[in-house]
Specification:
Elements lengths: L7 E4 L3 E6 L5 E6 H6 L5 E5 L4 E2 L1 E2 L6 E7 L2 E9 L5 E10 L11 E3 L2 E5 L9 E4 L2 E10 L2 E10 L4 E7 L5 E9 L5 E9 L2 E10 L1
Parallel strand pairs: 6-12
Antiparallel strand pairs: 1-2, 2-3, 3-4, 5-7, 7-8, 8-9, 10-11, 12-13, 13-14, 14-15, 16-17, 17-18
């Protein structure tokens, strides 16, 4: 309660980005080369949040950001202008059309009446691999917390999506990993009235 979100970091071949959603939202960008040099780096400030920055595994310069706004997925990128300074532009703003997108309810735990946070429908780690953005999220599935994962193109259209759920338990606090072969690993935790919070993962070759 009354906590402040810790923000998120992402990178591309050329840029490092940090979004700070606590209080007055801001997004900070710096050049990867300057940061790695160990010398003083120029930090560019973007008013407001561009979304959560994406871990870019593809060999590209542009840095992408992702956010959920109501019924829309919004993808923004930061690229270099003719003057050498970064600027942002929205590349996609599409309705997602998902049946399950609401924030998950808090989940029960064994031997206590204290409910635990199930996570956030806003993804906390996103990966750009094979020219697609991959992420997982915790969502409300008929009163329980479930995990949903997606592969979307940079124009916001779906390649594939999946829902991991069980009506008798809760899947919470999810992350995702994907390699260049597009093998996917989705990590999360399971909890309910009869078990302590325990780690889980699913894998799709």
């Amino acid at each position: 309660p009354n906590g402040v979100d810790g923000g998120g970091i992402g990178f591309s071949k050329k840029w490092i980005g940090y979004s700070f959603p606590g209080g007055e939202e801001n997004t900070f960008i710096m050049r990867m080369g300057e940061a790695k040099s160990g010398e003083q780096a120029t930090v560019y400030h973007f008013k407001g949040s561009l979304g959560h920055p994406v871990f870019t595994q593809d060999d590209i310069d542009d840095l992408y950001f992702f956010k959920i706004e109501g019924e829309h997925f919004v993808i923004t990128k930061v690229t270099e202008g003719e003057n050498g300074e970064p600027y942002s532009q929205i590349v996609s703003n599409k309705k997602h059309g998902l049946d399950y997108i609401d924030y998950p309810p808090r989940s029960p735990q064994k031997n206590t009446d204290q409910l635990t946070s199930s996570g956030d429908r806003n993804p906390k780690n996103l990966i750009l691999q094979s020219n697609c953005i991959w992420f997982s999220q915790a969502v409300n599935y008929e009163g329980n917390s479930a995990v949903q994962w997606h592969q979307i193109k940079l124009d916001g259209s779906f390649v594939q999506t999946g829902l991991i759920h069980n009506q008798d338990t809760n899947y919470i606090q999810t992350t995702i990993a994907v390699n260049k072969a597009n093998d996917v690993l989705i990590g999360f935790q399971e909890t309910n009235n009869n078990m302590f919070i325990s780690p889980r993962f699913v894998y799709r070759k």
